[in-house]
Predict the structure of NUDIX domain-containing protein.
Amino acid sequence: MTAPRPWSSDVEVLEVRRVRLVEVVAPGLSEDERLVMDRAWNAAVRANPSLFDGPVAASAGMVREEPDGVVLSWMRTTYRHFALCRVPGVTAWLPALFVTVVQPSDDGRVLVGRQSSWTAAPGRWQLPGGSIEPPAPHAPLDIAALRRNAVRELAEETGNDAAPDDLALWLVTRGVRGSVGVVFRAPSRPADWLLERHAALGASERAKGREPELERVRLVRAPEELSGLGGPCVDHLEPVVRRYAGMAPGGEERKPDGS
């Protein structure tokens, strides 16, 4: 496995060819912790009524599996549990497990988007992607399921209908608060086409009386351009863009491994 490079002192970035997922049981909450969680969640919903308490996968840790893979432990929970991370002094919160997609344009740039006001992170710039919906009880969560999650997020946020086999497993990131992301690379598309697809998606959503999840998208070539976007960026965005910008022009694309 390629060793993590110091793109950021706080975000770990690993290039991988294999990801193995292992389900573990989520730790229980004390009565006091549950009360704190419920209060925090109710306050978050009052501030943003679009939030919902559906099932979601949380990260339980990441271990390297030589020579070129990682083992990701995960737990079943609901979005309510993530509200605990906003409460000072509480240690029972769980880090997120998510998928994200590097969508290149044909001129070497990468598509990034700013989340709309109704989302859980309004105004934040990130790559297309999102949290992982856990499978049915006793069903496995595997790389194929992650690809399906990733293509669904890509379509919902950008209007780009890719197929799961189009996505190449590329990186795993671990952020400043322990959240783990599985990063896929999509095939390059014409820059104008990418912007037009998002514009068409936005027009369709607004015709239905709602804003798209990514209210705005941009194409960036280098991490230095992120500071000019006008808003905060998710912690893994800069190191992932930097890693992509450092790839050799015309280098061979890694093929999906199907593992």
Remarks:
- The longest strand covers residues 55-65.
- The two ends are 16 Å apart (CA to CA).
